[in-house]
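2024-03-11 09:14:02 INFO queue: dequeued item J domain-containing protein, len=215
2024-03-11 09:14:02 INFO validating residues
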Amino acid sequence: MKDYYSILEIEPSASLPEIKQAYRKLVMLYHPDKNNDDPYALARFAEIKEAYEVLTNPQKKELYLQERWLYKASGKKIGEELITAPAILIKCLELNKQVATMDIHRMNYKAVAERMTKLLNDDTISILIDQKETDVHASIIASMLKSIQPFPYTAAKPVANQLFKLAVHLPEWNKHIFQSMQKKQQQEKWRWLNPLLIVLLTIAICFLIWYNAHF
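2024-03-11 09:14:37 INFO prediction written
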């Protein structure tokens, strides 16, 4: 169940003026017009708007509080993760920012890839596809592709396999994933071939020098 109070960064005891004040503060931070339509800001703004609309509407708020009480009474934790396309997108974008700060020469690609495949496991993908929010799915795929950009082919492949599943109804993105992986595969081949070519070229140069010196 979503914790609308946490989303607005306020206490459950917050008054209506405090809710409105918190909303205005967060809108100033995450409004799409102020963030050049940044995907993370878009996803956060959608959550903030949803929370505000519920907590400022007496009928919706009353229903939410009843559901919240029943949820807590059943022993469940408020704010427990719900699998929704915007929520997954936010996690993908947060992960993307973390990857961007990592040293690509020291990064544990396998560990990061495992985090990504765990986030986009088969059950989650099935739920996302059922929700049919294809625009958000496209943003998730774009974010993941950006995250695995520095990955070698072998580390990126498990993530790409999950992205292919999510892109089942997005042929253009299916094509993007395929092209991205094809490019990685070619780069990996060249990475293995380059040292061999350098050795062969060195041998050829040495032979030419020896040949010119003796004939």
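2024-03-11 09:14:37 INFO annotate: The two ends are 84 Å apart (CA to CA).
2024-03-11 09:14:38 INFO item closed
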